[in-house]
Amino acid sequence: MILAGGTNLLVYIKDGAFKEGVIVDITGLEALKRIRRKKDRVEIDSVVTIAGLLDSELLKKTISFIPEMMIDFANLLVRNTSTIGGNIARPLIYQS
Ligand SMILES: Cc1cc2nc3c(=O)[nH]c(=O)nc-3n(C[C@H](O)[C@H](O)[C@H](O)COP(=O)(O)OP(=O)(O)OC[C@H]3O[C@@H](n4cnc5c(N)ncnc54)[C@H](O)[C@@H]3O)c2cc1C
Predict the structure, then answer these.
(1) Is the CB of 69 within 6 Å of ligand 1?
(2) Residue 11 Cα to chain centre, angstroms
(3) pLDDT tens-place values along the chain, 96 residues long
(4) Is the pTM of this model over 0.90?
(5) Nearest residue CA, atom 51 of ligand 1?
(6) 90 touches ligand 1 (CB under 6 Å)
(7) For residues 26 and 30, what is the distance between their CA atoms, to the nearest angstrom?
(8) Domain ranges of the chain
(9) 80, 82, 88, 93: residue to mutate for ligand 1 pocket, most atoms within 8 A of CB
(10) CATH number attached to the domain at 2-94
(11) 42 beta partners
């Protein structure tokens, strides 16, 4: 399993959902923490945190509804650790 912010995965592990397997921690991969403009689009890497979306000057200027929406996301602690990649992947993985 990929471990990003761990706000979901660590809870599932604690609850005994996964008893064996390999965890790959991607939180140290700086190359996956960027938000950048590429020609006519903005790319958001998967390890960008919710706080990173909230604070991004580029997003505020280009796709302002993203940081605006994130104001209501969880609490400060969760926003600082949880990632956009984990947020997208979690429902795909656990609701199927
Ligand atoms: C107190 C609390 C409040 C919350 N409030 C909200 C809320 O308001 N709104 C909301 O939407 N969610 C909320 N959540 C849910 C959670 O915080 C988000 O879903 C979060 O973004 C998950 O990201 P993570 O980086 O912590 O993922 P993790 O817990 O690290 O991973 C979650 C799943 O995604 C997979 N994964 C992670 N990164 C990748 C990747 N790059 N590629 C492929 N798979 C990947 C993992 O293997 C795992 O299966 C809340 C959670 C808590 C504990």
Answers:
(1) no
(2) 16
(3) 999 999 999 999 999 988 889 999 999 999 999 999 999 999 999 999 999 999 999 999 999 999 999 999 999 999 999 999 999 998 776 664
(4) yes
(5) 7
(6) yes
(7) 9
(8) 2-94
(9) 82
(10) 3.30.465.10
(11) 37
